[in-house]
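1st attempt posting a full record on here, be nice pls
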Amino acid sequence: MRYCAPLISNRSNTIMETIRTKLSRKKRKLVITMFFGFLILLAGMIVDIIGIIPIDWIWLLIIGGGLIVVIPNFLLWFKMPCPLCRGNLGGAINTPSWSWKIKWKLGIPSEIKFCQYCGVSLDKEIEH
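the predicted structure (as tokens):
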């Protein structure tokens, strides 16, 4: 998948970008947040096994890390709207497929070309 940098149009210096780029940026932020939440959760589990910190603080790490994993995952599935029709694209964007490579976990796969609700191309440029 190639990255499309935002372009400046001739009309009053508005920044243009594709729908795919906008959704990829949002998805990338949420997946990276989930990764760090998983690291916090894992650190809490390891500290619990080793027994360095009192038990009260370990549960804060484990529950906090778990929430940091669950909340972005919920947002990925249910709060990824098409910028034009506001239809939820989370299910289509996050459904795994054997043809997808690991680099597409942080972006929108090129196999998805249109919004399933309004039919607009994801490569259409919109204002930022």
